[in-house]
Amino acid sequence: MSRRKFIAGNWKMNNTNEEAIKLVSDLLEKVKNVTDKDIIVAPTFTTLSDVNKVLKSTNIKLAAQNMYFASSGAFTGQISTDMLKSVGCEYVILGHSECRTIFLETDELINKKVKAAIEAGLKPILCIGETLEEREKGITNDIVNNQTKKGYDGLSEEMAKNVILAYEPVWAIGTGKTATPQDADTVHKTIRQTLESIYSKNFAENTIIIYGGSMNENNADDLLNMPNIDGGLIGGAALVAEKFARIINYIAK
Ligand code: PEP
């Protein structure tokens, strides 16, 4: 089974408009000839429109970092699927651990967003992952399987094909600590089994499952060479064009 590698940069709350344009222009220059991987950047809402102008007709695609499930109305501070599509987004990150822990997003809310995104034609990058406490209790598999089931709840197999799953152990995000390639691969395998139990073997084998959590230019090769790791969701290292480009051009063994 060969799944295409999927490398996404989550810029989080970083970069003014000018900085975002410079970063994406520098990145484009370095990876413009890459055709064998999906490359995605997720800038802040305020910079999506101008970043999209730089990326038009290129090999880098645009993601938003979140959205709300309603299509319009009295939801101060929120962004709809149509708004994201109007500035060129094809993907949207949902259920990031920072949204779960800081902004108290629940599995139920995230599931509503996943459904709304797919119905609108956006592809969700659905994040799941255990905290350090949960890992130490030995319940990593329970947590990620539960988050997977709740995230996909009510989705037909046809709808679910649009989801990219991101396994992001919370203790590894922005901390410099990374899951070992073997540990991450084992969790990805477990997630694939869960997907098989919900849908089918074929579905599970075709689902893109990426890893996130302090992936950088030094550890990416080992992580991306694991059989169940189909790419990365990268925070810190995606803010430096050279580092992100190096990850995109990882050395395959
Ligand atoms: C993330 O934001 O999803 C992430 C993995 O961040 P970092 O690479 O900085 O750990």
**CATH architecture identity:** Alpha-Beta Barrel
* DSSP, total strands: 8
| Count of domains | 1
Spatial order of the strands in the main sheet? Answer: 1-2-3-4-5-6-7-8
CATH topology category name? TIM Barrel
Ranges with pLDDT <50 over ≥5 residues?
none
Looking at CATH, the homologous superfamily is: Aldolase class I
In the CATH scheme, the class would be Alpha Beta
Q: Tell me, what's the shape?
A: globular
Bound small-molecule species? phosphoenolpyruvate
What's the mean pLDDT score?
Answer: 97
Order of helices and strands: EHEHEHEHHEHHHEHHEHEH
Helix and strand content put the structural class at: alpha/beta
Number of helical segments? 12
Tell me the fraction of residues in β-strands, as a range. Answer: 15-25%
Structure description:
Helix 5 (107-119) crosses helix 7 (140-152) and helix 7 crosses helix 9. This protein has a single domain, classed as TIM Barrel. It has helices spanning 17-31, 45-55, 81-86, 97-101, 107-119, 132-136, 140-152, 157-160, 181-198, 201-206, 220-224, 241-248, and strands spanning 5-10, 37-42, 60-64, 89-94, 123-128, 164-167, 209-212, 231-234. The model has no long low-confidence stretch (mean pLDDT 97). The longest helix is centred in the C-terminal third of the chain and has 18 residues, at 181-198. It is 43% helix and 16% strand. The chain has 253 residues and is α/β, with parallel strands linked by helices. The protein has an 8-stranded parallel barrel, surrounded by 5 helices.
